[in-house]
Amino acid sequence: MNSTRWLAAVLIAVSLLAGTVSDTVRKNPPLMLGSYHVLAADFHVHPFPLSWSTLAPWDLVLEAQRQHLDAIAITGHNHVWVGKVGSWFSRQIGGPTILVGEEIVAPTYHLLAIGIDHTIDWQQPAAAAIDEVHRQGGVAIAAHPLFKYWAAFDSNAMSKLDGSEVLHPLAYVRPPAYLQFQQFYARKRLTAIGDSDFHGLGPVGMCRTFVFARDNSPSAIVDALRAGHTVVYDHDGHSYGDPDLIGLASQDSRFAELISPDPPPSFLVILSRFSGLAGLFILILFA
Fold first, then answer.
1. Positive or negative, the Cα torsion across 59, 193, 202, 274?
2. Is the Cβ–Cβ distance between 216 and 203 less than 8 Å?
3. What per-residue string of b and e applies to 48-86 under the rule 16 or more CB within 10 Å gives b?
């Protein structure tokens, strides 16, 4: 091996070592506001396999920890078994609360079923699917409710729907989509939800929901969603959700720490990035 390849190998090794050492998980400190536990959550996270994602259920649990999330719902496309795998793994390592969920993907609507146990058939109207979600003790949330899905959410379905995604990554790349989410949310009093719709690109929790629950158990989180005890903030600081809870959160500086950006990357993180890129650059061009 010539000196150029040795240099590239050393730089890549330094990158791996520095990245491993710097990969620490900072858990959110427990936060109580009034009588509520405040939890950062993402209720629309897709796993590998069968849901067009890159991370297995156990990797989603670890990534949720890295992104300082207290709870996630693992929502397979028209199946729930991966959520059960993720829930089991998280309990073994003392990780975040995992809710078993499903994204019901039908031709005319997409619906999140959160806190269920069995797969719900997608070959039925939205109102019937919502009924099944409720029979299993879960909550039904309209997923990225773009205008093309509105017809499926007729008056019968809307009377039963628990919540809707008022914030979704599409809001930041397609401004008309954000307006449609807001308009759908305004159709009736719904629980405000912010979700990442994670498929392997972008961070889990890019859009997130702050849940005000009696504790961090799955049942308590589902009860809080059913009661509308949530707050959602977009990147510009606009808030959605229960007005009383928005006011309660604004009075406590500790809550601001939950929604503030992470501190600048540490020296080890910068070293890992620089040495890894430099090593690959040398390999490609000179070795």
1. negative
2. no
3. beebebebbbbbbbbbbbebbbbbbbbbbbbebebbebb
CB 172 within 8 A of CB 206: no
Chain-centre distance of CA 259, in angstroms? 14
For 44, 73, 113, the CA distances from 204, given in Å and listed in that order, are 9, 11, 19
Q: What is the pLDDT of residues 236-263, one digit of tens each?
A: 889 999 999 999 998 887 777 666 555 5
Query: What CA–CA distance (Å, rounded) separates 134 from 254?
Result: 35
Q: Which helix (H) or strand (E) holds 198?
A: none
- Spatial distance between the Cα atoms of 245 and 131, rounded to a whole number of angstroms: 28
User: What are the tens digits of pLDDT across the range 166-194?
Assistant: 999 999 999 999 999 999 999 999 999 99
With beta carbons less than 8 A apart as the criterion, state whether 15 and 275 touch.
yes
Which residue's structure tokens are 């504790």?
215
> Of the candidates 6, 24, 3, 19, which has an alpha carbon nearest to the alpha carbon of residue 274?
19
pTM of the predicted model as reported, rounded to 2 decimal places: 0.85
- Residue from 41, 66, 19, 95 nearest 232 by CA: 41
Q: What is the pLDDT of residues 63-92, one digit of tens each?
A: 999 888 999 999 999 999 999 999 999 999
Query: Tokens 């297995």 belong to which residue?
Result: 56
What is the Cβ-side half-sphere exposure of residue 124, based on CA atoms within 13 angstroms?
13
